[in-house]
Amino acid sequence: MKIKNIITLSLALLIAPAGFAQNARFTTQGVIEYEKKVNMYALLADQLKKNPDDSFGPKIVEDYKKNNPQFKLLKSTLTFGRDQTLFAPVAEQVMQNSWYNMPLAQQNNLIYTQTAAGTSVTQKKIFEETYLVKDSTRKINWKITSEIRNIAGYDCRRANALIMDSVYVVAFYTEEIPVSGGPESFSGLPGMILGVALPYEHVTWFATSVIDQPVGDDKLKAPIKGKITDQKKLMGTLKEALKEWGKSAQDFLKAFLI
Prior knowledge:
Structural class: alpha+beta
Number of strands: 12
CATH topology: outer membrane lipoprotein receptor (LolB), chain A
Shape: globular
Strand order of the largest sheet: 7-8-9-10-11-1-2-3-4-5-6-12
C-alpha cells in the first residue's frame, strides 16, 4: 500500500469516531417499561424481627414461603417527553392478608412531573384514601461514580444517595436519554434513571425496555382525583394516623413516602 493511501486510511479511522459521536441519536420521547422486584422473604423476615411478640407472624411467613416465590414482580411504565414524565403502575391483584400488603410491596403512586420546572403531581393511594400531592420534586444529593452498567441496551452511570435520612439509594442513569426523570419519585440526575436499588429495603426498579417513539401531550396529563395536599401536610397526616402503630409506624411512613 502506498504511503499516501496509508495516511488517508489513518485519517479516516481517526475522524470516524468523532463523526459517529456527533451523529449519535438521543432519545427525548418514548415509553420505558420497568420491573419492580421485591424480596418478600427478606421483607417478611424484617417484620418478624420488629414484631417478636406476634405469635401468628412465623406461621404466616412459613405459609407464604410454601406458596409463593421469593421475589414479587410488579410492572410499571414511564411515558416521557422533553420536559415531562408520567409514571404509572400496571394494576395487580392485591392479596388480602395485611402481612403481604406492606406498602413497599405495592405500587401506590401515579406521578406526573415537569422536569424543567421541578414540580410534580402525585396521586397516592394510602389505605382507603387517595391523595393528590402537589409539590416540588424531591431534592436528592446524588454522588456520581465511575461505575457503568448496561440496562435495556443503554450504558448507565451509577450514582448514590441517602433520602429520608436513612434510606440508601443506588441509581443508574443514561445521558443518552437527556430527560432528568426516573421511576417513582427518583430524579435529579443529568439523564434518565433506568435502574434504582434500595438494598436495605429489599426492592429494586429496573428498566426492561425503552420504546423510542413520539409522545403527544394527551399522553402526559397530571392526575386530578384525590384529596389535595402537599408533602409536608401529608407527612403530618400519616404521623397522626400511625402514632399508635409502634415499631411498624416508621416502616409504613417510610414506604408511603418513598
